[in-house]
Specification:
By secondary structure, the protein is an alpha+beta fold. 40% of the residues lie in helices and 14% in strands. The mean pLDDT is 87.
C-alpha cells in the first residue's frame, strides 16, 4: 500500500496591477431545445451585478416596502447575461419587453442557468430587493 504525500499549494499574493490585469470572465453555452440552438451566457462584472441589484431594490412595493414586484426581473438579468460569440451583449434595455414575450419556460431555464453562473442564490433576488 503506497501513501501519497499531499503537497501544500502556496498561493501568491498579487499586486493591484496583476489583479486588474486578470481575465476572470466566464461564459457558459446553454442548450435551448425549444429554439434548437445554444445561448451563450456570461458572468456579470461587479458593476453589472450592482446594476442588477439596483433593479431589484427598485421593485419594492407595499406600504412598508416589504413586498417585491419580481415582474421582469428574469429578463433584466438575461439582458445583462446573454452575449454573442465575441462576448458582447445581444440585447439592450430597450429589448427587454420583446425578450419577455418569448417562452416562459425558456426564459425560466435561461434565468436559472444565469443565476447559477453568477452565484445568485434562489432567495437572493428577493433579499436584495428588501435591503
Amino acid at each position: 500500500m503506497s501513501t501519497k504525500k499531499e503537497e501544500k499549494v502556496v498561493l501568491a499574493r498579487l499586486t493591484k496591477e496583476q489583479i486588474l490585469a486578470l481575465d476572470d470572465s466566464k461564459f457558459e453555452d446553454v442548450e435551448v431545445p425549444e429554439w434548437k440552438c445554444l445561448v451563450r451566457l456570461k458572468r456579470l462584472s461587479g458593476d453589472e451585478r450592482d446594476q442588477f441589484e439596483q433593479i431589484c431594490t427598485s421593485r419594492r412595493m407595499g406600504k412598508d416596502g416589504s413586498q417585491v414586484n419580481v415582474r421582469g426581473l428574469k429578463v433584466a438579468l438575461l439582458q445583462k447575461c446573454i452575449v454573442d460569440e465575441g462576448g458582447e451583449l445581444m440585447f439592450t434595455t430597450e429589448d427587454v419587453k420583446a425578450l419577455n414575450e418569448k417562452s416562459g419556460k425558456v426564459l425560466d431555464d435561461l434565468f436559472e442557468a444565469a443565476r447559477q453562473l453568477n452565484g445568485i442564490g434562489e432567495g437572493e433576488i428577493e433579499d436584495a430587493a428588501k435591503n
